[in-house]
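U., I forgot to send this yesterday:
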Amino acid sequence: MLTLISGDRPQSRILGALLLLILFALAFAPFLFPGSRSLETAARICVFIVLVASYDLLLGYGGIVSFAHTMFFGMGAYGVAIASDRMGTGYDALILGALAGTAVAGVVALLTALLSLRVRAIFFAMITLAIASAVAVLVSQLSGFTGGEDGMNIRIPRELTPAFRLGDVLGTRINGKVINYYLVFGGSLVLFLLMLRIVNSPFGRVLQAIRENAFRAEAIGYRVVYYRAMATCLSAMIAALAGALFAIWLRYVGPATTLGMEIMMDVLLIVVIGGMGTMYGAVVGTTIFVLAQNYLKALMGGLSEATSALPVIPDLLNPDRWLMWLGILFILSVYFFPTGIVGRLRGLR
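Result:
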């Protein structure tokens, strides 16, 4: 199927098996992993795969360093929130809000690209950081429009809420939350396959050529600024759609959930862990990172209790130190997998 869609094969049996396992687990998450927390984790993985892949389109394929990616993510989320607040509960509000947020993200990305892409990479990164910070402050201060620091609750159709009951399938109660999950899963899958097609198209090949040597690409006739601007716009619009899906799932949007710099740092870490310039790296890296974020603390608590009779070890495995171990895991992954997990697996082929 991947050959028909993009021609981009995993190029590794281990990687192929891992991707199929992740796809199967996400596709049947409500039945395989019952419980609210498991479904929340699966939905977050779906959304962040799209967000990370859209950033990799910019960084890994285009060689463009930006710190404003979560700004576009937030635009999609706030588009849905504002539309539902003004238009009420309905699918038309969700669709219009997602489209409006995507359009705004595309316009802002285009203006940012045209004004900044001619400067060197580090200066472009600083400009995007300044713009993202300004937008975050603006969202916090426009409390009458965006809810300010308190954020906004999103009213979604009853069919997407836990109150809606559809019946039981394979011993699992199918309610609106499960339907909402499959909306997120289906939307994320379509967006990911779209990006996979983009990076393996002639446009994607030109982006990679520009990443490797912009002067040579320009010398043979490619308009480097045009291609970089297009990549910036595509990346921003897909990130906005991911933000819209995230807002519909959470039924809430706020500066901390979509615009925080912590999210931007997580995206950067996942890109490095998974492997830059590989769409599959977003899948593997996001799955590992989100699972570690959600379950590493609980795992460490169990290990700490199991080793309580030993000296020092229980203190090292204290759940309060989970961030330290997450950092150690990141350092080890960079050391042993300098090209990312996907790059390493392909290198072992």
